[in-house]
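Hey, quick one: can you model this chain's 3D structure?
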Amino acid sequence: MSHADIAASLWADGFARIGSVFDGAECVRTRALYRDESLFRRRIDMENHRFGRGAYKYFAYPLPENFSSLRESLYAELAPIAGDWMKALGLPQTVPASLDGFLALCREHGQSRPTPLLLHYESGSFNCLHQDLYGEIIFPFQIIVALSDPHREYEGGELLLVEQRPRAQSIGHVLHLEQGEAVVITTRYRPVKSQRGHYRANVRHGVSRIASGERFTLGVIFHDAA
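Sure thing. Here's the predicted structure for all 226 residues.
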């Protein structure tokens, strides 16, 4: 998908499917990292926190090289769109052109812990609707990459997006992701044009219950945590 198509989809729907970013072999290699505890700073059991059922692990710095370069290139692609969103929403936060510049901004506000993560679901697992907010500085987009094959390895487990507009019914989206496919989603809220400019539509995301099998997902979050 071209930059213009990504921007148009984000403005229209709050998400954009950007196609495959990993081939099958790279998906298998990436999800195998889940077993290497030295790569992660923290593990979260969702059920213990009433987040759902399943588990995820936050990577530690330095990130694996292929993942780090993907994060940098995706940030550079999305930063100009993010800047336009900030202006439309009347938010004062600046959006540096490079990921290094943005992470420096995070550190200035006490946010230095990495937030990219690997998520693991088994039969019966699910992820409640939520937002990935870790401090004052927030990048308006994040990436979800499917690492498992929905035709062979699991059933269910669709990506859910729910948008709440002021004084209106919620809008829901259900996305089926192929192995290696990535989608850009709204982190917190998106600008929706009205007669008086733009207003903020709150967006949350989650994962429907896994009917059977095993599902791995990579979450590419750009802002670090406090």
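One thing worth noting: The first strand starts at residue 15 and ends at 20.
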